[in-house]
Amino acid sequence: MGARSSGTRILRYLPGPVHPGTGIKVTTLSPMSDSSSAATRVRREPPPFRPVHVRAVEYRTPHLARVTLAGPELAGLAVEHPAASVRLLLPSPGTEEVVVPTWKDNEFLLPGGERPVIRTFTPRRVDPAGLELDLEIVIHESGVASGWAASAKPGDPAAVSGPGRGYVVDHDASAFLLAGDESAIPAISQLLEALPAATPVRAHIEVAHPDARLALPDHPRATVAWWDLPAGGPRGEALVGAVGRSQLDSGSRVWAAGEAATMQRLRRHLFDDRGLPRVQATVRGYWKSGRRGT
């Protein structure tokens, strides 16, 4: 593909005002022409960020915090399918200000060219009337989002973008197999609420601590198995083993999410070892073990 013709629009940063009542600075863009810009393949720009603030924080377990976000900008936020996603924009380290970034060159960037602090979570509950959004965040020893959730208090600013794709339920499936670690508990909870009541469901959840277990939504034909990660044991071993022992037929559907390396093992097992058609399984890596700032 050749260079773009003259008149190509280039976007530059212009500082904007602070959003009333949120402390969030909105950075806008102004077009400028550049006849020499080369054409590049661009990804579709994600939905714009909506300024919000923390309304409440509730611990569902010692390791899972439900953060309720609120604000008038949540008007119109609709999540069609379960296990969808939203991006959560947090203040940059060392600041209490949330600066909304701009989508540039296939990524979000702040005015100075830095990458913003953005993490992705399941929108556990959306309340259109109350203009609220619940996110459930795993609390662990390190991590930007974990630290933010652990210290969040009412009025703290943030912003959300989304929703991203969810899981389209196949109502003709003969059975569903769900698998994940603690990070997948919000999505698995939504799936238990959304899957057909007459269809058998088996859920396998691996947790790092026994007290990370919690009551999940009722499903009349669901069985839930909790797997404790042994002290010092390899992450994902119990989850992969449980899936490996599960029976799957041509009508079964699999949904799995969690640590990226574990999900890669599940992909190899399902698609390579068992020959499961890819249309029967959705496997998503939510986070990477050992990566700082997860």
* Overall number of strands: 17
Give the overall shape: globular
The value of Rg in angstroms is: 21 Å
Low-confidence stretches: 1-17, 19-23, 26-38
The CATH C-level name of the largest domain is: Mainly Beta
Can you give the helix content as a percent range? 10-25%
- Measure the end-to-end span: 37 Å
Fold-level CATH name of the largest domain: Elongation Factor Tu (Ef-tu), domain 3
Largest sheet: 7 strands, antiparallel
Give the H and E element order.
Answer: EEEEEEEEEEEHEEHEEHEHE
Identify the notable features of this structure and list them briefly:
4 helices, Elongation Factor Tu (Ef-tu), domain 3, mainly beta, 2 domains, seven-stranded antiparallel beta sheet, Rossmann fold, globular, 294 residues, disordered N terminus
What would you note in describing this structure?
The protein is mainly β and 294 residues long. The chain has 2 domains: 20-27 and 46-164, Elongation Factor Tu (Ef-tu), domain 3 (Beta Barrel); 175-287, Rossmann fold (3-Layer(aba) Sandwich), CATH 3.40.50.80. The protein is 14% helix and 39% strand. The chain contains 4 helices and 17 strands. The strands form 4 sheets. The chain has a 7-stranded antiparallel sheet with strand order 9-5-12-3-4-11-10. It has a 5-stranded parallel sheet with strand order 15-14-13-16-17, sandwiched between helices. Helix 4 (260-273) links the parallel strand 16 (252-259) and strand 17 (281-287). The longest helix has 14 residues, at 260-273.
